[in-house]
């Protein structure tokens, strides 16, 4: 059968092959002109609902970093901390740097009766509340043989009971705020390891994982996600007493596969992710953020 050579499509221009194409005049194209005037959403706002977030323990360390990262993502923030001045300072910084509505309140989260008033002022200041980060926490270093009711309750009330009661108190607001509402509890890798001086702390952090799963079960059908973050060693005032012991910092750095302690930003970025729609199918999870420490040992 005779083959026929396909005819070359006629060239639309007389430009020789390989010649550099003349740059189109972008302003001559109506589509392009329209595109250049479209307002771009800053990357850090992507996937974030515009609703406010309550951050307990937001006056220091991980909570403070969470408040700043959430504000950077365009979210109004309410800082609830027993340190009133610290809460106000962080609220002011979030407002000044990221121009979001904020409020800083002095509140002891171990006293549930203060929650209703704090919530009411926060709703007034932020409009809607679609997120909770429970970062308030204390270590309460006492060996099990030295424990009494008071020292046990002090740790459990702040670290665990407050998380549960806050969840209950904030649920109506999270539901009102609509799809995308989410909760993150700051647990710890101590949830998985025993520690000579931290029995109450370890128990509270392990308890938070149980609370995470149960609350995810109850709130999931209503579109509210609940997750826990389990940091390793983070360089904050909470860890200072341990890090002041000679050789401890270097030892922790050496034993961590990533060869450094975490800074609060390392944890806040994960919390911010869990509160965003990017994590829209993550619920009931416990996310370890420890530079690889629990892959080989504990603190
Ligand atoms: N630093 C670490 O290595 C580490 C590791 C794992 C988990 N965590 C957890 O992360 C969370 C934040 O810890 P951090 O390291 O940022 O500590 P931090 O001491 O820097 O901050 C804790 C904040 O909680 C506030 N707070 C304490 N008691 C309170 C109360 N009764 N009511 C309201 N606020 C109260 C404090 O004023 C402080 O601002 C804690 O839950 C902690 O257990 C920390």
From TrEMBL:
Pfam families in UniProt: adh_short_C2
Native species: freshwater metagenome
Family recorded in the similarity comment: Belongs to the short-chain dehydrogenases/reductases (SDR) family.
Record key words, sorted: NAD, Oxidoreductase
Protein name: Unannotated protein
GO molecular function, one term: oxidoreductase activity
Ranges where the Ketoreductase domain occurs: 52-222
SMART domains, per the entry: PKS_KR
Region entry Disordered, spans: 1-38
Compositionally biased region (Basic residues): 1-24
Record-linked SUPFAM superfamilies: NAD(P)-binding Rossmann-fold domains (SSF51735)
Stored InterPro entries: KR_dom, NAD(P)-bd_dom_sf, Sc_DH/Rdtase_CS, SDR_fam
Lineage, top ranks: unclassified sequences, metagenomes, ecological metagenomes
């Amino acid at each position: 059968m005779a083959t026929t050579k396909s005819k070359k499509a006629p060239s639309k221009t007389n430009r020789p092959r390989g010649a550099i194409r003349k740059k189109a005049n972008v302003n001559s194209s109506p589509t392009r002109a329209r595109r250049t005037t479209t307002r771009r959403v800053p990357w850090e706002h992507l996937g974030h609902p515009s609703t406010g977030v309550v951050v307990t323990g937001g006056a220091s360390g991980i909570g403070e970093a969470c408040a700043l990262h959430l504000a950077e993502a365009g979210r109004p923030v309410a800082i609830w901390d027993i340190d009133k001045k610290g809460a106000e300072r962080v609220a002011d910084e979030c407002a000044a740097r990221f121009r979001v509505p904020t409020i800083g309140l002095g509140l002891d989260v171990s006293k549930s009766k203060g929650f209703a008033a704090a919530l009411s002022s926060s709703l007034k200041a932020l409009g809607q509340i679609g997120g909770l980060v429970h970062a308030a926490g204390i270590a309460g270093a006492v060996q099990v043989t030295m424990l009494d009711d008071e020292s046990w309750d002090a740790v459990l009330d702040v670290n665990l009971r407050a998380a549960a009661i806050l969840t209950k108190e904030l649920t109506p607001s999270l539901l009102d705020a609509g799809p995308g509402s989410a909760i993150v509890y700051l647990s710890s890798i101590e949830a998985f390891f025993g520690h000579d001086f931290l029995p109450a702390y370890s128990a509270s952090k392990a308890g938070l994982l149980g609370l995470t799963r149960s609350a995810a079960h109850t709130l999931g059908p209503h579109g509210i996600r609940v997750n826990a973050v389990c940091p390793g060693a983070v360089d904050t005032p909470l860890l200072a007493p341990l890090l002041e012991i000679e050789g401890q910092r270097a030892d922790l750095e050496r034993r961590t596969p990533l060869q450094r302690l975490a800074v609060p930003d390392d944890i806040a970025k994960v919390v911010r992710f869990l509160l965003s729609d990017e994590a829209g199918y993550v619920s009931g999870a416990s996310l370890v953020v420890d530079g690889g420490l629990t892959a080989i040992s504990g603190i």
